[in-house]
Specification:
The complex is a heterodimer of chains A (308) and B (449). Chain A has 16 helices and no strands. Chain A is mainly alpha-helical and 308 residues long. By secondary structure, chain B is α+β, with helices and mostly antiparallel strands. Chain B contains 18 helices and 15 strands. Chain B has a 5-stranded mixed beta sheet with strand order 2-1-3-13-6, covered by helices on one side. In chain B, strands 11-8-12 form a 3-stranded antiparallel beta sheet. In chain B, strands 9-10-15 form a 3-stranded mixed beta sheet, with helices on one face. In chain B, helix 17 packs antiparallel against helix 18. The radius of gyration of chain B is 27 Å and the shape is globular. Classes of the chains: A mainly alpha (308), B alpha+beta (449).
Chain lengths: 308, 449
C-alpha cells in the first residue's frame, strides 16, 4: 500500500519542480529515514516474502500460478471474497457519505458546538480493535443490549443468534467498523476543511452562495484529496477484515464460519492446513486488489499532484 | 522560520543534515533492538512442565501443583479447542515452524484432535504405549482406547467418557403425570403433548455445535465412516432422514429450540427460576456442569434415564459429546514428568461432592469411585448412575474420528438455518455437502452413498 504511494510520489511533474524537489529530497531524507528501516522490515520484506511463497511450492520449487488457481478453486474462496466486497462496499459508502456529511455540517457551526460534537463522534473510536468487537457482541445481544428495541424492531432479532444471522453479518461488521473508525475520520476531515482559506468562503458568500452551495461546490472539491486518502486506507483495511469475524466466530461457538473473510481463509490455510504457499497466494490477491484500487483512486483524484 | 534560517549557510546545512542522519540511524538501530530485547530463549529446563488446559480442567492442574510443590509447573489456560475451534492447529503450526515453545501436556475438548496431532504435518503427539504402563491403559474401556489409537499406536488417554443419556426433570415429570420415555418415538410423542398441554417447556435442544452428535451419531447416521481409506458421508441414509423428520415437528412446536444451552438466552428462558427443561438428551458431563452450574436448576429435580432406543431396534446405541483427551507432546523434554501428570490427572485426581470431576472418568477404577459419589449426590432427584453406567459402552462405533472438526459445519450450515426457520430435513443435503467439502479440503477421499 504505502509502497505505491511513495513510489508514485517520486514521479517528477515538471523539470523545474524536479530541480526544486532534488533539494527537497535531501532535506526530507532525515525525516523519512527513521521510518525506512521499519518500512523495509515490516512492509516491503514481508510482501516480498509473500510473493516468493505464493509462486513456490512447500519444498521451495517453482509453482507459477498453481497456488493462485488452487486457492481460487477452494470452496471457501468465493464466499469469503463476496463477504468482504459486500462489507467493504457498505462500509466505504457509509464512511464517505456520512463522515464527509457530518464534517461539512460541523464546519458550518459555531466553534463551541463543533468541538463538543467532534469529541462525541470521536469517543466510539477510542475503543479500538478487539475491545470494540467485544462491546459490540453485547450490543448485539437483545437480552443485554441497551439498544434492544432497535435490534428487535430494525434488525428483527430477538436472540443473539438472530443478530448475527449470515445475511446480516456484512451489515453488522460494517456498523462496527463505522462506529470505531468514523470519529477519527470526522476529525481529520474537519482539519482538512479548516485549511480552506476563509476569504474563499467569504467571496462565495458575497457572490450569493448559500451554506449548501458553499459546502457542496466549494468545500467538497477542496477536500477531495483527503477523501481519496480516506477511501484508499479504508478500502485496504476493509478488504483485510479479520478481527471482527474471528471474534464473532468464537463468540457464536462456530455459527459464523472461521473462513468468513479472505484474510481469515489465508490464516486458516496457513495455520490449520500448514499450507503457507496457498495462504501467501490469498494474501497476494488481497494486496493486488488493494493496490489496483489505490492506483485508480490516486489517478482519478490526482492525490499526488503538488502544483494545486 | 528559525529552522529554515539555519539552512542559510551551506556548512550549517550539511552539519544539520549529518546530525539528523546520525540521529535517525541510531534510532533505527536502537528501537528494533529494544523491541526484541527480551526474546532470548533461555533454553528449556528439563524439569519444567508446561501444561495447557481448558477452564474446566484447571482444578486438576492446580491440584497437581499443590501436591507437588517442588515441581516447576507452568499452567496455561486456553479455549480448549472446543466447538471446533482450530486454536491447537494454529499454535502447533507456529511452534513447529519456530522450532520451540511446545507445551509438554495438552488437554483438548475435542475428541478428534489426537487424530491430526499424530499425523503429518503436525506430528505433535507422542505415542503413549511406552510412557503409561500397559496395565493402567487396560483399565480404560476398549472403545475409549480405540478412539485414541492412530495407525496402531495410542496417542492419548481420554479424561472422561461422554456418552449421551436422557436427562429429565423428575419433579416436573411427576407433576405433569408423564412417564419417562424409553424410545425416541415415545419421546417425540411426549414432545408434541408438552407443546399443547404445557407450552414453554422443552424436551431437548438442538442449537449446540454438537447437536448432530446427540441426535445423528446415536441414531447411526453415517456421516463419518471410514471404509478402507475412504470416508462415507451419506446424509441421505434413512438413519439420518428418519431422525430429521422426527425432530422437525418438535423444532416447530418449540419443544426442541435451536438454541445453545450455553447462551444467556437459553438460561434466561428455560433455566433457573423459569425451570422449563422437562427432558434433555445430553452427555454424561451435563450432570452438574450444565444443570446446576450453567442453568441453575434447583437441587432435587434432575436425574438421568438410559439412552433412547429407536423403535424396537437392538442393540441400543448412543452418541458421544466430547470425551476430551490428554495428549503428551512428542518434543517434550520432560516426557517422564508429563506422563506422571497425565496418569495423576486421569487415575488419581477424583475429589468428591461439589468439587467432583464434571465428566464420567474414563479410567475404570476412577469411574467406580465417581459413580459411588454421584449416587449419593443430593443434587439429583434420583440416582443417575445406573443410566450413566449402562450407556458407557453403548456409544455407536460407526462414527469415526477424522482430522477436521465437524462442529463448525453443523453450526453454520444447520443451526443458523434452523434459527431462520428452515426444517432439518431440508438441511440434511446441504449438511452432507458441506461435510464432504470440509473432508476433501483435509485430504479425504469422500464417498456419498
Amino acid at each position: 500500500m504505502t509502497v505505491t504511494i511513495k513510489a508514485t510520489g517520486q514521479k517528477p511533474v515538471r523539470a523545474q519542480v524536479t530541480r526544486k524537489r532534488g533539494l527537497g529530497t535531501m532535506r526530507g531524507l532525515p525525516f523519512v529515514l527513521p521510518y525506512l528501516p521499519f518500512l523495509v522490515a515490516f512492509g516491503i520484506l514481508p510482501v516480498a516474502y509473500a510473493f516468493y511463497l505464493a509462486v513456490t511450492t512447500d519444498t521451495g520449487g517453482w509453482a507459477g500460478f498453481d497456488n493462485f488457481t488452487r486457492t481460487v478453486r477452494d470452496y471457501r474462496f468465493l464466499p469469503a471474497l463476496e463477504h468482504i466486497l459486500l462489507y467493504t462496499g457498505m462500509w466505504l459508502g457509509s464512511l464517505i457519505v456520512i463522515v464527509v456529511g457530518l464534517a461539512l455540517l460541523l464546519h458550518g457551526r459555531a466553534n463551541r458546538v463543533t468541538s463538543t460534537f467532534r469529541f462525541l463522534f470521536y469517543i466510539p473510536g477510542a475503543l479500538a480493535g478487539a475491545s470494540s468487537v467485544l462491546v459490540w457482541l453485547f450490543m448485539l445481544d437483545p437480552s443485554v443490549s441497551p439498544g434492544s428495541f432497535l435490534l428487535r424492531n430494525v434488525l428483527g432479532s430477538h436472540l443473539f443468534v438472530e443478530s448475527i444471522a449470515p445475511g446480516k453479518l456484512p451489515f453488522v461488521f460494517a456498523m462496527i467498523a463505522f462506529w470505531t473508525g468514523a470519529g477519527g475520520w470526522i476529525v481529520v476531515m474537519y482539519g482538512a476543511l479548516n485549511t480552506i482559506p476563509h476569504d474563499l468562503e467569504e467571496a462565495a458568500r458575497v457572490d450569493g452562495a448559500g451554506p449548501i452551495t458553499i459546502a457542496l461546490r466549494l468545500k467538497l472539491p477542496l477536500i477531495r484529496k483527503w477523501i481519496a486518502y480516506m477511501a484508499i486506507l479504508a478500502f485496504a483495511t476493509g478488504t483485510q477484515l479479520f478481527v471482527e469475524p474471528q471474534l464473532v466466530n468464537q463468540a457464536s461457538l462456530g455459527q459464523v464460519p472461521d473462513t468468513w473473510s479472505s484474510n481469515q481463509l489465508a490464516y486458516q490455510l496457513a495455520f490449520r492446513y500448514g499450507d503457507f504457499n496457498g495462504a501467501a497466494a490469498v494474501s497476494v490477491d488481497l494486496i493486488a486488489v488493494a493496490l489496483i484500487a489505490a492506483v485508480v483512486v490516486v489517478k482519478r483524484t490526482g492525490l499526488f499532484r503538488i502544483e494545486d | 522560520m528559525r529552522l529554515l534560517g539555519r539552512f542559510a549557510s551551506p556548512r550549517s546545512k550539511l552539519h544539520w543534515l549529518r546530525r539528523s542522519l546520525l540521529l535517525s540511524l541510531a534510532m533505527a538501530v536502537v528501537l528494533p533492538a529494544g523491541a526484541c530485547g527480551d526474546d532470548s530463549d533461555k533454553g528449556k529446563d528439563s524439569s519444567k512442565l508446561t501444561i495447557w488446559v481448558d477452564a474446566v480442567r484447571l482444578p486438576v492442574a492446580e491440584a497437581y501443583k499443590k501436591e507437588h510443590p517442588d515441581l516447576n509447573l507452568d499452567i496455561v489456560t486456553y479455549d480448549g479447542d472446543g466447538n471446533g475451534a482450530t486454536t491447537m492447529q494454529t499454535k502447533i503450526q507456529l511452534w513447529n515452524r519456530t522450532g520451540k515453545g511446545w507445551p509438554d501436556v495438552v488437554f483438548s475438548q475435542q475428541v478428534n484432535d489426537p487424530v491430526w496431532m499424530a499425523q503429518k504435518p503436525f506430528e505433535f503427539a507422542a505415542p503413549l504405549n511406552d510412557l503409561i504402563p500397559a496395565d493402567l491403559i487396560s483399565k480404560w474401556p476398549a472403545p475409549s482406547t480405540a478412539q485414541c489409537t492412530v495407525n496402531g499406536k495410542l496417542y492419548c488417554v481420554q479424561d472422561n467418557l461422554a456418552q449421551v443419556v436422557l436427562w429429565y426433570n423428575k419433579k416436573l415429570m411427576d407433576q405433569f403425570g408423564y412417564t419417562v420415555p424409553k424410545t425416541w418415538q415415545e419421546w417425540a410423542a411426549l414432545g408434541s403433548k408438552v407443546a399443547t398441554e404445557h407450552p414453554g417447556y422443552i424436551v431437548g435442544n438442538i442449537g449446540d455445535s454438537y447437536g448432530h452428535w446427540i441426535y445423528l451419531w446415536g441414531n447411526q447416521c453415517p456421516l463419518e465412516q471410514l471404509n478402507g481409506g475412504k470416508l462415507l458421508i451419506n446424509s441421505a441414509d434413512s438413519h439420518c432422514t428418519r431422525v430429521a423428520s422426527m425432530l422437525d415437528p418438535l423444532v416447530k412446536n418449540g419443544t426442541l429450540p435451536p438454541l445453545s444451552v450455553f447462551t444467556p438466552d437459553f438460561a434466561g428462558k428455560y433455566g433457573g427460576a423459569a425451570d422449563k427443561v422437562l427432558m434433555m438428551p445430553g452427555p454424561a458431563w451435563y450432570a452438574q456442569a450444565v444443570f446446576n452450574d450453567t442453568l441453575h436448576i434447583p437441587a432435587g429435580e434432575i436425574t438421568a434415564a438410559p439412552p433412547l432406543q429407536w423403535e424396537s431396534e437392538t442393540p441400543v446405541t448412543t452418541g458421544q459429546v466430547g470425551g476430551g483427551p490428554w495428549i503428551i507432546a512428542k518434543r517434550s523434554k520432560n516426557l517422564k514428568g508429563a506422563a506422571d501428570f497425565v496418569i495423576w490427572a486421569t487415575t488419581v485426581f477424583n475429589p468428591s461432592g461439589k468439587d467432583a470431576r464434571p465428566g464420567y472418568p474414563a479410567y475404570g477404577p476412577a469411574a467406580d469411585v465417581w459413580l459411588k459419589d454421584m449416587a449419593t449426590n443430593k443434587y439429583f432427584a434420583a440416582d443417575p448412575t445406573p443410566a450413566l453406567k449402562g450407556a458407557a459402552d453403548k456409544i455407536w462405533t460407526g462414527w469415526h474420528l477424522v482430522t477436521y472438526p465437524d462442529q463448525p459445519v453443523w453450526s453454520n450450515t444447520v443451526v443458523t438455518q434452523l434459527v431462520a426457520g428452515k426444517s432439518l430435513s431440508s438441511l440434511m443435503q446441504p449438511f452432507g455437502d458441506a461435510l464432504a467439502q470440509a473432508a476433501q479440503a483435509s485430504g479425504y477421499t469422500v464417498i456419498r452413498q
